[in-house]
Amino acid sequence: MLADKKADLAGPGIGNYEDVERSLPTDYRSLLSPRETQKAIFAVKSYIEQHLCQELNLMMVQVPLIVDAEAGVNDMLDRDGSRTPIPFHIRNDHDRHPVDAQIVQAATKWKRMALKEFGMRPGEGIVTDMRAVRKDYFLDHDHSAYVDQWDWEQAIRGTDRNLDYLRATVRKIWKVITGAERHAQSLFPQLKDPRYPNLPEELRFIHAEEILDLYPDLPRKQRETELVRKYPAVFIIGIGWPLKDGFPHEMRAADYDDWATPTVSEDGRPMHGLNGDILVWNPVTKRRHELSSMGIRVDAQTLRKQLEISGQLDFLKFPYHQGIIKNELPLSVGGGIGQARTYMLLLKKAHLGEVTVSVWPKILRDMCERRNIHVIE
């Protein structure tokens, strides 16, 4: 069991193609044709971008695909070094003025710097149509090396750094997602299928420590699966802080989400963390389905504490980290909402490749073909 829990921290994806094949539905038939699917994707995309801006007072902005490696602004995704960005060398001016760059894995840190650049005041923010490459993912039905997200960030006040503000923000995002589901079904009525219930209007908030209490002998992904079987939409609070079994619910980078601040559960028990994930039950794949990771971001105190816990105090040399330590960057809340993950869920698809164009190994493409799953080439 100890080995299972350690392995479960290594990152996303199922982990082997025998399990992937067992997880793919055997009786699948898409409710939309490939052409209808493309129309539905852009209808959902437009709805979510418009309503995210309305609910959270955001504006759409441009976002980088590549960043300077020396800026320390790329997202490392976790804190164990298992998922690293793709580096490349730009031989500018015959290598007299070169640039060492990286393809972004997410715009998490860049967005906080952008809040300052665009002059955002508390209660105002930005949202981006972010594209990234994550080369270290295991490629399965809902993980791709090509990533698209609505990466958003909102400036806040120091008094907003609490669970009430986090929950209120999550509820606004959930309102947008459920509204997008209804919008898609109004345009494509065949998406209303009794086999696939709609998302609940409300989601359930639960701390990672409480989930461990419910399922103490299960690894993290299995805990999440059992939880969303019971509650089909949840927000798991406090991802990154070590739990009572000695492991965090999942590894989280130390330099953006605040997972160390002491908090209190609704029944008065001590907890940690001002971040979390939105997870749902996917009735097509009959599996857990992550839609969003988000949180209130670190301030100077929690940044230093989390870097110390992670053994990464050397990160304080980077401009982004110095901006937080010197209180030059705005306090903020932010996150990423997976675009293809959302389309996959709302359009009742069995595989990410039905709603996004990426690269997949032959073994997975062959599996999909046998299961009547149309992966875009």
Which key terms come to mind for this protein?
8-stranded mixed sheet, alpha+beta, 3-stranded antiparallel sheet, 377 residues
Gist of the model:
This protein is α+β, with helices and mostly antiparallel strands and 377 residues long. It is 33% helix and 20% strand. The chain has a single domain (2-370), classed as BirA Bifunctional Protein, domain 2 (2-Layer Sandwich).
| DSSP strand count | 13
- Please describe the biggest sheet, giving its number of strands, its sense, and whether it closes into a barrel: 8 strands, mixed
The CATH superfamily label reads Bira Bifunctional Protein, Domain 2
The chain-level structural class is: alpha+beta
Top CATH class:
Alpha Beta
Instruction: Kindly report how far apart the N and C termini lie.
Output: 39 Å
Q: Estimate the helix proportion, in percent.
A: 25-40%
What would the CATH topology be? BirA Bifunctional Protein, domain 2
Uncertain stretches of 5 or more adjacent residues: none
Quickly count the domains.
Answer: 1
Task: Tell me the strand percentage band.
Answer: 15-25%
Q: In one word, what is the shape?
A: globular
The arrangement of helices and strands along the chain is HHHEEEEHEEHEHHEEEEEHHEHH
